[in-house]
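Box 3.1 A note on notation
Throughout this textbook, protein chains are presented in two layers. The first layer is the amino acid sequence; the second is a token string describing backbone geometry. Keep the layers aligned when reading.
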Amino acid sequence: MIHHAIQRLLNEGVPPRAICYFSVDNPIYNMLRLEQFVSFYATAADFDLKSEVSYIFFDEIQYLKNWETDLKSFVDTFSNVKVVVSGSAAAALRLRSQESGAGRFTDFLLPPLTFYEYLDLLGQSDLVTAPPEIGPQNRSHFFSTDDISLLNQQFLNYLNYGGYPEVIFSKDIQSDPARFIKSDIIDKVLLRDLPSLYGINDIQELNYLFTTLAFNTADEISLEGLSKHSGVAKNTIKRYIEYLEAAFLIRTVHRIDRSAKRFTRATHFKVYLTNPSMRAAVFSPITENDPALPLLAETAIYSQWFHAEGTPLYYARWKGGEVDIVCLDKTNQTAAWAVEVKWSDRYCSDPGELKSLIDFCLENSLSDPLVTSKSLTVDREVKGIQLRFMPASLYCYTVGHNIIRQKGRNPAEIGHVGI
């Protein structure tokens, strides 16, 4: 994206000498300060930073010592210079930019591709039909498709390869996803970024924990259980999970009870990969009959919502019952809507099996929860509750599309499908 931005500047007529790019993770730059980079550029391009407009790009800025304070000082001194910095250690970048650059820096978080972006990049958006421009309460505001089998096949490909643009365009990488996703992304973060930024000592422990979490994405876990299984202290595991979240490899989702109340002491939680294709890279791609597919479909749906930062998503679990996704209204902390993720059409003909979802809706005065299916779009009524069924692939597309297109709206008001 940085290269595209530079090309756009050139296309708009910006002189090449007014553009500078540094890849800061190169070892030759160790121990240099930001002002030294800028000095090298000004000398090499014979450029007057105080009187001429220029654009400077720093890639992987987290490897530059004290970059945040130096950058603050630099932008205060040289108002003609526009600076873009990027880095893979999202949490560290954001924390430091907020501490030192308040009012001067603008942060952009770039999550993995949504299913909507995936189809759009591949030129496959015609697999879905856009809804008409009508009120949000009408059922037909959902996207539809004339070929659910083909859409589901693309959804399966998305689960295996859909997180990163380079992967979706390369059959070579898809034949061996570990070559790119695991080696260039996961291992880079686990073996290089985190140790250097946070001082992690036991990389093997961290790698083992991530592998365990990746295999069990969308399952409920506990620190106690992970500690017993691995022999690692609970506090250490908690710290590792915080690191993995900081690196945007995983996201934890917390539990509420049947009345949508949060627990004072959270002992159990779910962990989701921020991108389902990481599981295929760590283990192997799944097929349409793989028993892990329902969990990866749930992971994919959650990953769409991660694009809407701050969305108050939880899962509900109590003795004898569970609901996969619940959004709480931020103003009154009540359940705003609920979604049950299934990869089966069985419940469309026997909706009474969804007892947990129905009980939760009756308890929290929810009238129209959404249930994903494999291929069917139907409505069913049980005990006065209108159950809306739609294919998981369509729901995933709709959420991704509407979150990308309507950023900034209250997630509780957006509703089940991100409208």
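Confidence is low (pLDDT under 50) at residues 134-140. The first helix runs from residue 2 to 11.
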